[in-house]
Amino acid sequence: EGKYSDKFENMFASYVNNKHTSLVNSCTSALTLAYHLSDLKKDDEIITTPMTCMATNEPAHNTGAKLVFADIDPSTGNIDPESVKKLITKRTKAVVGVHWAGEPFDIDGIKNVVKESGQDIKIVEDAAHALGAQYKGKPIGSHSDYVCFSFQAIKHLTTVDGGAICCNNKEDDKRIKKLRWFGLDRKYKGSKWTQDIAESGYKFHMNNVNAAIGIEQMKYIDNIISSHIKNGLYYDQMINNTKIIKLKRNKNASSSFWIYTILTEDRDKLQKYLRKNGIASDVVHVRNDKYSVFKNSKSDCLKGADYFCERMLNIPVGWWLSDAQKEHIVRVINEY
């Protein structure tokens, strides 16, 4: 840490409009801290989505807590509040949702379910896809107990690798800033090594080199994200093939369009057709409940996830696309 990490931390906190923001060395580290602060222990339960990168769920699994997979809304790819409601037990400590493709999940729906339970259940947002997205007119970053961002190589903003965690109160923020560096306060006046360590921490801080890259990236972030959004909205408007299903948009939110997801009945056929026409495509993530490591959390009742995962495909939407390339993608898909 140093002057560059301090500067970047302040810049990013301002960007997401949350002063309780801490830089870390990856989104996985941010999620690990969120689960630590949620007090997850062996035999506790955390309700989560299967439709995500393994980095969302492995840190929770490593606490010893039981993962309980909720279903997703197949029209969005996001966690379904009604499914979460059915899964809450006295052991539930946290609910984690992912803003799939940059489209915010129903945060209010999850909050209402948690409130109705009458329990102290933390809400964690994995916002790895969602930098620049908004929910009810506010940037993603301050709606829930903990919000975790990724600055990994292919995200909207990259520091080569890195991340950030936002929380909603001063005490959690102070605790996170200690936990990310062995439980010590880097701002301590005097020799930092003479401090007492009251809570065992991690080596999760962001270094000055990655932060310097982040500072430079901030010069371009508005243009990068606005380009993704412009491209995504163009697809929303122009793709009109009945064989292609576009994701449903939340009227209370705006997507950052990190990726652009479409659904189709024969994914392999469409992917071969796109490849033949010079268009890359991929599934990006595999549903986590199929991994052997989560065998104790398997469920046979995730019909939304079944539908979504059999049909989901992602097409190029990034800032690098030219108008001609976007038009080509739309034309090819509409002629499929």
Care to count the β-strands?
A: 13
Unreliable residue stretches = none
Sheet of most strands: 7 strands, mixed
Roughly how many Å is the radius of gyration?
20 Å
Written overview of the protein:
Helix 1 (3-15) crosses helix 7, helix 2 runs parallel beside helix 3 and helix 4 runs parallel beside helix 5 (107-117). By secondary structure, the chain is α/β, with parallel strands linked by helices. The model has no long low-confidence stretch (mean pLDDT 96). The chain has a 7-stranded mixed β-sheet with strand order 1-9-8-5-4-2-3, sandwiched between helices. It has a 3-stranded antiparallel β-sheet with strand order 7-6-11, with no helix packed on it. A 3-stranded antiparallel β-sheet has the order 10-12-13. The chain has 11 helices and 13 strands. The protein has helices spanning 3-15, 27-37, 54-61, 81-87, 107-117, 170-179, 208-217, 221-238, 267-276, 303-311, 323-334; strands at 21-24, 45-48, 66-69, 92-98, 122-126, 134-135, 138-139, 146-150, 163-167, 245-246, 253-254, 260-263, 312-315.
Task: Tell me briefly what this model is.
Helix content is 35%, strand content 15%. It has 336 residues and is an alpha/beta fold.
